[in-house]
Amino acid sequence: MPPPDTASVPLTGWGRTAPTAARLVRPGSAAEAVAAVRGCGPRGGIARGLGRAYGDAAQNAGGTVWDMTGLDRIRSVDAEAGVVVCEAGVSLHRLMRVLLPLGWFVPVTPGTRYVTVGGAIGADIHGKNHHVAGSFSRHVRSLELLTADGEVRTAAPGCDLFAATCGGMGLTGVILAATVQLLPVQTSLMTVDTERARDLDDVMARLDAGDHRYPYSVAWIDLLARGRALGRAVLTRGDHAPPGALPPRARRDPLAFRPVQLPAAPRHLPRGLVGRPSVALFNALWYRTAPRRRTGELQKLSAFFHPLDGLPHWNRVYGRGGFVQYQFVVPYGQEEALRRIVLRIAGRRCPSFLAVLKRFGAADPGWLSFPAPGWTLALDVPAGLPGLGGFLDELDERVAAAGGRVYLAKDARLRPDLLAAMYPRLPDFRALRAELDPRGVFTSDLARRLGIAHRPGC
Amino acid sequence: MKDAFGSPQSLLVLGGTSEIALATAARLAARRTRTVWLAGRPSPALEASAGRLRALGAQVRTVPFDALDTDRHEEVLGKVFAEGDLDMVLLAFGVLGDQPRDEREPAGAVRVAATNYTGALSAALICGRALRRQGHGSLVVLSSVAGERARRSNFVYGSSKAGLDALAQGLGDSLHGTGVHVLVVRPGFVHTKMTAGLPAAPLATTPEAVAEAIEHGLRRRSEVVWVPGVLRCVMSVLRHVPRAVFRRLPL
């Protein structure tokens, strides 16, 4: 039984919807994690990192949630080969701080550096470089997984356990540590090319034509623009700056990493701050003030990759009602489906700050890994928007019909019956889980809501 | 589990023949609700309710439940919770009574109180505890504007709902931070079989409108919803009318 002194605490994901209560246990070492898993109660447990999954992936109502940020040791860094061995609770922020001075960068970073390595593998995260670098798991050489029987197994690319764990949302076990191949960099600045695209066709054409020239590429698209401006966007694409591109002052410390942070957003903000007028104004300003075309601009890493990390707790601007992020991918060849979806969203006037459009490259082997070759669109919407549930269900249908899928790390509302269509390797995942975790020790609100672990007929 | 919009996947209705409950269940079944338990006294009406919801694609099971038989509540409700998590419990049973007759024959008034208050107290506490154990879920309690201020014309019913309302508020506060959400619903006059034949009060509403308000309250994780919403203002005025005036009002 879990120790009686651990009180239940309400937890939500980053979107701050659907709070549920769980016992929060923070193991400080692998041995403590093993003891925690062996002693977990009948409602099971799930590992949680920094709580950046938008939905209910790291919640476990009535059960246990293991706060993994206590496992925060970097075991070794091979500065020659660029390989780091670290515990699962180490954040990408910390890795950047430690590794940049040595000339190494994380191979893949999402829009925030406040995610843990364990979370990055569990959600098989992607970044602006997916079209060339794939998802995070592509750079993982091996990982240590604590499974339901209390044993620690080592999984490496090529084995089923590895494929099930990458993108497996923590449902195969607790990741304790990982060996990650890093990316060499010479400076901590980015050279960024910015251009504006007047509509959706324009932005898609530009991304198609130019992505091969940039390792990092993304387009911010204004989903509130209508008519001829439908899908207007600002493309920002870049690469790590070579030392020669740096101004003389910066050359003295080319690998400096000093991200700027504003004070955190206040705890209690009213609902409705993010409304149609404010978002439309913001998006229009964003578009209008972006340069039509600018090349070679130097930007800090943090400004290029993680602009929202500059405002801690930015998720609070949506107020108590929270928000949902909807991210899907549709395969290449389904551009028409993407167009129709964008048209539907724009037609419905969802107050969505700067949605993100990106081209994905080849998929990685994770069975429940999200990225697949195609177009991905991510948008934030206040959860209180009337009729949003039904509207997103309709988009799900279109995404599934086009052979696409939605991202489980961001999901808080998918219709359960579409899961199997979106993730064709789900039966394999369930079979492996049935073998590895027959009692269902690892479970989460996400798993319960979508029936991820259920085997048909059981 | 509820989704980001508070839509439950499983629902237990206490008072399975209540029209408001049925309208709510039907509305939720159109979203995410697939499993519905209808608890009530076994009757053809209960089976008919189940049939209606099955036609909407929900898996419906009926369970014999009598609000007055509080000794058996633990056992009956325990069995339902033992079958799996419940994302929402809708406490919808209640009787209106017949005020003039209840005043003449207090045994009838006791029955109103025993159903609307004591029975609900027992069921709400049992369900609240079970929801707390599972760490999530909404307990939706059908109160009434009649409980906001007792009126000359129906204070028996009104006082039972006043007790229920206070119970639900207190329970909601005690469950704050446990993942369990308690929603108090205060409808005005609702056109149902319970009120059939009575003269409709101003701002009368329908079971469907109450269902919509409940869905909205779930989404916003509200603590109280009034149906229609304007009743909140009306009642806050009426609450402050002096007694000498209030008793003369034709309410």
TrEMBL record, chain A:
Gene3D superfamilies: 3.30.465.10, Vanillyl-alcohol Oxidase, Chain A, domain 4
Pfam families cross-referenced by the UniProt entry: ALO, FAD_binding_4
Domain of life: Bacteria
Keywords tagged on the record: Oxidoreductase
Residue span(s) of domain FAD-binding PCMH-type: 17-185
Keyword Translocase among record annotations: no
Name assigned to this protein: Oxidoreductase
Annotated organism of origin: Streptomyces albospinus
Lineage: Bacteria, Bacillati, Actinomycetota, Actinomycetes, Kitasatosporales
From TrEMBL, chain B:
Species, as recorded: Streptomyces albospinus
Keywords: Oxidoreductase
Coiled-coil ranges (or none): none
A Pfam family per the record: adh_short
Lineage start: Bacteria, Bacillati, Actinomycetota, Actinomycetes, Kitasatosporales
Stored InterPro entries: NAD(P)-bd_dom_sf, Sc_DH/Rdtase_CS, SDR_fam
UniProt keyword annotation of Ribonucleoprotein present: no
Family membership: Belongs to the short-chain dehydrogenases/reductases (SDR) family.
Protein name, entry field: Short-chain dehydrogenase
Superkingdom to which the source organism belongs: Bacteria
